[in-house]
């Protein structure tokens, strides 16, 4: 268990530190920037948001995934399956169906960490896990999150930068394909909803 939570945090830090991120769009002047990173058949994206609340408050709001439906329309339901300890929880999430597909579901481990040193970010890391008590169900298409999460950097006592990362697999692709070709703006819309929710 300790290894799984460590690898969850480490995978997010590794993804964030990769060279070669490219800015693909900037919204509202500077409040939202979207970056992508391609490596083989894995596409990652990063959404950087400037938010006018303290970083510790953003951390407490973003690390509790039961709030997620309030701003992310990709989360239909979200329930805590297991509180592993105060920094790790396992959630079951369902997503609305994309045309022609069954609704998807995910079993995810969410690991949160406060910064050890000044200038280090708050971290909320997410990855799929297998839980014998929650096997795949025929009504959903069980999907996997390789690596996702938030890094929250303090800018001042009343503002912070929130970076959301997601390493995209084919399971998440239907939600993003339209977006990355520019025909849909769901990433931007979700980022703006996130900022509105936080502020």
From TrEMBL:
<dbReference type="GO" id="GO:0005737">
    <property type="term" value="C:cytoplasm"/>
</dbReference>
<protein>
    <submittedName>
        <fullName>ACO12 thioesterase</fullName>
    </submittedName>
</protein>
<dbReference type="GO" id="GO:0008289">
    <property type="term" value="F:lipid binding"/>
</dbReference>
<feature type="domain" description="START">
    <location>
        <begin position="18"/>
        <end position="168"/>
    </location>
</feature>
<dbReference type="Pfam" id="PF01852">
    <property type="entry name" value="START"/>
</dbReference>
<dbReference type="InterPro" id="IPR002913">
    <property type="entry name" value="START_lipid-bd_dom"/>
</dbReference>
<dbReference type="InterPro" id="IPR051213">
    <property type="entry name" value="START_lipid_transfer"/>
</dbReference>
<dbReference type="InterPro" id="IPR023393">
    <property type="entry name" value="START-like_dom_sf"/>
</dbReference>
């Amino acid at each position: 268990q300790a290894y799984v939570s460590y690898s969850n945090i480490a995978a997010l830090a590794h993804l964030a530190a990769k060279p070669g991120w490219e800015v693909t769009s900037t919204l509202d002047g500077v409040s939202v920037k979207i970056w992508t990173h391609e490596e083989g058949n894995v596409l990652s994206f990063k959404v950087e948001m400037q938010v006018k609340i303290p970083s510790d408050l953003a951390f407490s709001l973003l690390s509790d995934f039961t709030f997620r439906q309030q701003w992310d329309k990709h989360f239909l339901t979200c329930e805590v399956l297991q509180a592993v300890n105060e920094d790790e929880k396992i959630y079951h999430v369902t997503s609305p169906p994309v045309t022609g597909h069954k609704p998807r579901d995910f079993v995810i481990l969410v690991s949160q960490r406060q910064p050890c040193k000044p200038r280090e970010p708050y971290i909320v890391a997410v990855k799929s896990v297998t839980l014998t008590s929650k096997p795949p169900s025929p009504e959903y298409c069980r999907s996997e999150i390789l690596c996702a999460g938030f890094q929250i950097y303090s800018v001042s006592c009343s503002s912070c930068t929130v970076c959301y990362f997601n390493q995209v697999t084919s399971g998440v692709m239907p939600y993003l394909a339209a977006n990355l070709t520019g025909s849909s703006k769901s990433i931007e819309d979700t980022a703006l909803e996130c900022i509105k929710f936080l502020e």
